[in-house]
Specification:
single chain, 15 helices, Helicase, Ruva Protein, domain 3, alpha/beta, Rossmann fold, two-stranded antiparallel sheet
């Protein structure tokens, strides 16, 4: 068994930093990432919220938008051990988790020893995750939820903090395997990476066609990220704000009394309780980034789409008519009132 020291970000312990230190750390991390990445400010902020929450992010965008570079730069800025897994149809679960191999010790005795796979890292980039078979995709399920890996009869603990940042290309869907709902639900946020603006594209061309090479400096470490997660969980949230989150989530269930007309028309299955958890924790972190110790309705609305869009299952009418989860959620946010 691999012996790894772990840090539980959810443990009940006092926060080791103030709100001012929290904001300063986030700003410093974003500055280091901006030194390498051009634009994508909103995506960088949302990825940071995921990491501070101890969650995982699914990044969706066409090739060439810097998804891989963002994850690699984040690992540099946080001084985390980084590994990259390129998902392909022939990838096997053991290629991710590791396997038992026959090894010979100093005395000449042969025995099986566990050889850890690339999942044993702090920040794991699952590149083009939808290109692997469901059998291989499922190798991540236990690691993402339990932070452990089971091989044969042994359970191996992953080092903490542990994050999976997965990417997928929405264009080339032939020969791919869409992630099942159970695995999508384990992602804290699903982020849509937009195409750069004209000014950003000019800067990208300038940086990438010269001999100048820029790397992110260390702005924080794993222990700091865990402390930030502890502080975020201690942020209070008013009862009426929690009630608003609950009504938003219940409003995504077409068979429920709280469902709005657009949900009844286009949604097949609503959001799981993990959606409400992601909204509340994401809103708490956003409030801290803004320098507040209370969660506002604006915080909730700011994180609602990335927290819910991958947990909403649309029906055939929505898919045939080109209605997206964001379309449904945007209408839902407009129709659900802050006060019940």
């Amino acid at each position: 068994m691999v012996a790894v020291q772990t840090v539980d970000a959810n443990a009940e312990q006092p926060a080791q930093m103030s709100v001012a230190e929290f904001r300063t750390t986030v700003r410093r991390i974003e500055e280091e990432i901006a030194a390498v990445m051009v634009g994508q400010t909103r995506v960088v902020r949302d990825v940071l919220i995921c990491v501070i929450a101890g969650g995982h992010a699914l990044l969706e965008g066409v090739p060439g938008l810097g998804k891989t570079m963002l994850v690699r730069t984040l690992a540099e800025a946080l001084d985390l051990e980084f590994s990259r897994i390129q998902f392909t149809p022939d990838l096997m679960p053991a290629d991710i988790t590791g396997t038992n191999i026959l090894a010979e010790d100093e005395a000449g005795q042969r025995r099986f020893a566990f050889q850890p796979g690339p999942i044993f890292s702090n920040l794991v980039l699952a590149d083009e995750i939808n290109r692997a078979t469901p059998k291989t995709q499922s190798a991540l399920l236990e690691a993402m939820q339990e932070k452990t890996v089971s091989v044969a009869n042994a359970i191996h603990r992953l080092s903490q903090p542990f994050f999976v940042l997965a990417t997928q290309n929405p264009l080339e869907m032939e020969g791919t395997y869409p992630l099942p709902e159970a695995q999508l639900d384990r992602f804290f946020f699903k982020l849509l990476v937009p195409y750069p603006t004209a000014d950003d594209l000019i800067e990208i061309v300038r940086r990438t066609t010269t001999r100048v090479s820029v790397a992110a400096a260390k702005a924080a470490d794993g222990g700091t990220i865990c402390d930030m997660g502890v502080l975020a969980r201690q942020v209070p949230i008013a009862t009426h704000v929690t009630d608003y989150v609950v009504r938003l989530v219940l409003g995504t269930h077409p068979e429920g009394e709280a469902a709005v007309p657009v949900v009844r028309r286009y949604v097949r299955y609503g959001v799981s309780p993990r959606g409400a958890q992601a909204i509340v924790l994401g809103a708490k972190i956003r409030a801290l980034i803004e320098g507040r110790l209370n969660v506002s309705f604006d915080d909730v609305r700011a994180v609602a789409l990335p927290a819910l869009r991958h947990r909403l299952i649309l029906n055939f009418e929505a898919e045939a008519g080109g209605t997206s989860p964001d379309d449904v959620l945007t209408t839902l946010l407009q129709e659900v009132r802050e006060a019940g």
